[in-house]
């Protein structure tokens, strides 16, 4: 049986969240329609919700 853990902590309501899981953490900045993310592994991403149920996402990895 795999073990999963995830906790979302609100730092600024409806704007900034800290997500903590078994493999690290991530920050999420933004609202429901658009947000930016950054995690403990150096990855970042952008997501925008579009009309009609579509989502545009872009992920980027940190370069050494």
Automatic annotation (TrEMBL):
<feature type="domain" description="DUF4236">
    <location>
        <begin position="3"/>
        <end position="57"/>
    </location>
</feature>
<protein>
    <submittedName>
        <fullName>DUF4236 domain-containing protein</fullName>
    </submittedName>
</protein>
<dbReference type="Pfam" id="PF14020">
    <property type="entry name" value="DUF4236"/>
</dbReference>
<dbReference type="InterPro" id="IPR025330">
    <property type="entry name" value="DUF4236"/>
</dbReference>
